[in-house]
Design brief:
alpha/beta; globular
């Protein structure tokens, strides 16, 4: 499917900035410790007043889309093994932090009907089931879809066309940041840039000093300006420090993705942007 670039303002998903997004439901909020990407975590964010939550999706062996970050269950649940190798019946029995169920994405959409979901596709097997679920629940206006995999992102765009807002993928972000002259003005690269403020690159030296690392700032005035000129929003993750939040908002970014949603609420209140309005 071929489709042109539509600006963020054309998508009901996007509010006027600044936007606050709860990363995995606000994983470092005092009430959410140990229960990332659960209905309980999302309820904390919604109860605080946030209208946006960020989550990740995988698909079970039988095609059920679940809100979960890792490919395997081991890190945060009392289960083990790959989600892709388990049926939903099996995944539904494990517990995050020993207490909280792994939610299906449709449960999240139904439980929070006025909440907008930023969705990161974590596995190729989740692409088609995610699009079917969005259609079944008439959720195209409530979601923005992204991925760290350009292959997964392109596959989703091929299915959804311009009916769903998407985030720029890694190669597209790099082009806008480092090679803006090579990005055709009409090329679709999503409606939002979702980026960390900085990235750390490994640097390999040929001499005797071994390997080092260098930090590159991704979010610059030039990048924000380029994105805005294309009608895109710029959302930065994962920002948990109040001073960093203020600095980025002063730079003109449109959204902040945070684990410390209590801190985020305080900073947005300083800007007269809390509580959020539709």
């Amino acid at each position: 499917m071929t489709f042109g670039h539509r600006p963020a303002r054309d998508f009901p998903y996007f509010d006027a900035p600044p936007i606050g997004l709860a990363h995995r439901g606000g994983a470092l909020h005092p009430d959410n410790r140990g229960r990332e990407n659960t209905l309980e975590a999302f309820a904390t964010a919604v109860g605080l007043g946030l209208r946006y939550v960020e989550t990740d999706v995988h698909a079970t062996r039988d095609g059920v889309v679940v809100a979960f970050h890792d490919a395997c269950l081991d890190r945060v649940t009392d289960g083990s093994g790959s989600i892709a190798d388990r049926t939903w019946a099996q995944v539904s029995q494990v517990r995050v932090d020993g207490r909280y169920a792994v939610p299906r994405l449709d449960q999240c959409l139904l439980a929070f009907p006025h909440t907008r979901f930023n969705i990161d596709i974590k596995a190729p097997g989740a692409v088609a089931p995610l699009w079917r679920l969005i259609q079944e629940h008439d959720a195209a206006d409530r979601v923005c879809v992204g991925s760290f995999s350009m292959q997964r992102l392109r596959a989703f765009r091929a299915l959804a066309g311009d009916r769903v807002a998407t985030a720029a993928g890694p190669a597209e972000v790099a082009a806008l940041r480092f090679r803006p002259g090579r990005v055709p003005p009409g090329r679709d690269i999503g409606q939002v840039l979702q980026v960390p403020e900085t990235i750390t690159w490994p640097v390999r030296h040929t001499g005797s000093h071994g390997a080092g690392r260098t930090v590159t700032r991704l979010v610059t005035p030039a990048l924000v300006s380029r994105a805005h000129a294309r009608g895109m929003q710029v959302h930065v993750w994962t920002v948990d420090d109040a001073d960093a939040m203020r600095r980025l908002l002063d730079l003109g970014v449109d959204g902040l993705v945070s684990d410390r949603i209590d801190v985020l609420a305080e900073v947005l209140a300083e800007r007269g942007a809390w509580p959020p309005t539709s």
